[in-house]
Design brief:
Pfam families: DNA_pol_A_exo1. The chain is α/β, with parallel strands linked by helices and about 210 residues long. It has helices at about 10-15, 35-40, 40-45, 90-100, 110-120, 145-155, 160-165, 175-195, and strands spanning about 30, 50-55, 70-75, 80-85, 105, 125-130.
């Protein structure tokens, strides 16, 4: 699967034959439910220059229903994944990170995140849309996280529809939800670092 010479995305069947993605270990995933827990890691977060970033919202099943999400915010480094079960205090706590143009938030599908954040009166700065970072591979279209992981690392990054459409507003998240959410943000930091190391990020690519 030499993506540098062939701008053809791998098929689902091809990805299924690859070794399974190795997620960050469970003990390195920190779930934050309140401000007191967040304050413990404030200094740690302030030192981070680049985060893998994602968010999850409770799914909407009724026509006309408005989302109240995101309900979970995921930030990840190489060493840890931080899952914030959002409430008013945590939105206030994280706002400086969201607004800081010098703390990069790299992820996939961030246009929708920006829309949801704006509805809460919060502006996302310093974000990098990874789906548009594969021009060096010959792809003009957006590349999703599963294809990105297959192209860069030759691994199968599983995506469970059952978990992705589960209740992310639940007070107690299941282990499967925690691992799924952490993987989404952790994969983003791995992808960004790999693109950097291969010098495949477009020079004219700018943060927004």
């Amino acid at each position: 699967m030499d993506a540098l010479h062939s701008p053809i995305l791998p098929t689902k069947e091809e990805i299924a034959t690859l070794p399974r993605f190795q997620n960050i270990s469970f003990e390195k995933i920190i779930v934050i439910q309140n401000l007191q827990q967040a304050e413990v890691i404030r200094e740690e977060l302030e030192q981070v220059q680049v985060f893998g970033f994602d968010s999850e919202s409770k799914p909407i099943f009724k026509a006309g229903e408005q989302s109240t999400g995101p309900h979970l915010i995921q930030l990840a480094t190489r060493e840890r994944a931080y899952l914030f079960q959002m409430n008013t205090e945590l939105w206030h706590f994280l706002q400086p990170i969201f607004a800081n143009p010098h703390q990069m938030k790299a992820g996939f599908g961030l246009k929708n995140d920006k829309h949801l954040f704006r509805k809460k009166g919060i502006e996302l700065n310093g974000v990098l849309e990874l789906s548009k970072c594969f021009g060096s591979f010959g792809f003009k279209q957006a590349v999703g996280v599963r294809n990105a992981m297959a192209l860069l690392f030759q691994v199968n990054f599983p995506k469970s529809k059952k978990i992705s459409t589960s209740n992310w507003a639940a007070r107690k998240l299941s282990q499967a939800q925690i691992e799924y959410a952490a993987a989404d943000a952790y994969a983003c930091i791995l992808i960004l670092e790999e693109l950097w190391q291969r010098k495949l990020l477009s020079r004219e690519l700018k943060l927004s």
